[in-house]
Amino acid sequence: MDRPIEKKKGFLLRKYGLWAAGGCLLVALVLWLLLADHAATLRVSSDELTIGAVEYGEFKDYVRTSGQVLPIQVVQIAPEEGGIVREKVVEEGAMVRKGDVIVRLSNSGLDLQILNAEAELAEKQNLLRNTQVAMQQDRLNNQTELAQLEMDTRRCRRAYEQDRQLYSQGLLSREDYLRSEENYRLSEKKLSLIGNRLKQDSVYRTVQMDQMEDNLQNMRQNVVMVRQRKDKLEVRSAIDGELGLLDVELGQSISPGQKIGQLNDLSDYKVQAEIDEHYIDRIRQGLSASFSRNGRLFHLTVRKVYPEVRQGKFRTDFVFSGDRPEHIRTGQTYYLDLELGQPAQAVMIPRGTFFQATAGQWIFVLDKSGHKAYRRTLRIGRQNPQFYEVLEGLEPGERVVTSGYEAFKDNEVLLID
């Protein structure tokens, strides 16, 4: 009698289980390859990050900078004449009036020039007087000669007229008549020549006298100017103000034009600030600025923008457009808010040190869970001391990492614990 053969339990499971498990692993591997995020990741602690929110609101276009109070005008002290410091009349910090003597110098070489100029002037004056006397004597001699020739001419004419009558009557020889006529004609010729010579001499003497007078006047002016140079050995204040600096010592040799000090015009003050070169194209004369001190707001205006950039900064001068703070002093520091434009609605993110590493070209944005942050490209526009203006790449309500990125290197995903 036949017996049915019973199938062994677990046979199918042992036979096909291995294939089923392999198929599941293969499917899982494919899904992981398709769905997993393979970007470079870095695990960081939330305590090490500064997280800010993306906002939409009023963006105030201004820059904050520190400025130092300076006198409205600084006048350099530089003597026009050189010399040896003989006396310091005023000390640093003293108030002076325009024209007050600050330093007295001595210059023996200049004294010698004055003596030489005065001696040369006296010599020229004596020469002019002698020349004038000689010319006067020559003029008198010429006039005497002219008078003599005029008298001789008249005599010769009378003799000629008489001889002509006698000759016409046959009472005088022809030779005597011709001799009388020749004498008369010669006398007339001499009179004409002496007249022309006297006219030329007069013109020449007049020109010569004018030239000598001009030379003498120039020498007088030279003496006056040399004496004025001596007056400039007293270095005087050019304005009313404070003697802020005086760098001279008794017996020191000072050259003409050498800077020896400065005067501070304290009739008003200005504030000079150094601003990052990033703003040099946007800052111009007339922009408004303000600062707060002791609970009061003070307003200023840009007076001058210096074009030279040094160590990444350029200088700008501000003047007060209203009240000044009480007890304002040179050297005080004020923190200014300089307005660059009108406020406008914009997407903003808080300022942070991430900008130094990314130059504002990308940023880490948190997902909704707050446990991951992904690198995202963005475009930043204007900036003020509190916010960056976001032109593209972020939406209001998102959260971003604003702290430094130096430790993140080239990672594109942050896992936040």
In short:
The chain has 417 residues and is an alpha+beta fold. The chain is built from 4 helices and 22 strands.
- Overall mean pLDDT stands at 84
Residues in helix, %: 25-40%
- Rg on CA atoms, Å: 53 Å
Number of helices: 4
Residue fraction in strands: 25-35%
Main sheet record: 6 strands, mixed
**What order do the SSEs take from the amino end to the carboxyl end, as H and E?**
HEEEEEEEHHEEEEEEEEEHEEEEEE
Strand segment count: 22
Report on this model:
The protein is about 35% helix and about 35% strand. The protein is of the alpha+beta class and about 425 residues long. A six-stranded mixed β-sheet has the order 1-22-18-17-21-2, with no helix packed on it. Strands 4-11-14-13-12-15 form a six-stranded antiparallel barrel. The protein has a four-stranded antiparallel β-sheet with strand order 3-16-20-19, with no helix packed on it. The longest helix has about 60 residues, at about 110-170. It is elongated, with a radius of gyration of 53 Å. The protein starts with 10 loop residues before the first helix and ends with a strand. The relative contact order is 0.19. The model has no long low-confidence stretch (mean pLDDT about 85).
Chart the SSEs and their pairings.
Layout lengths: L10 H25 L5 E4 L6 E3 L1 E5 L2 E16 L5 E6 L6 E2 L4 E6 L1 H61 L5 H58 L2 E3 L4 E6 L6 E2 L6 E16 L11 E6 L2 E15 L2 E8 L12 E7 L4 E7 L3 H5 L3 E5 L5 E6 L1 E5 L3 E6 L6 E3 L11 E4 L1
Parallel strand pairs: 1-22
Antiparallel strand pairs: 2-21, 3-16, 4-11, 4-15, 5-7, 5-10, 6-9, 7-8, 9-11, 11-14, 12-13, 12-15, 13-14, 16-20, 17-18, 17-21, 18-22, 19-20
Helix pairs in contact: 2-3
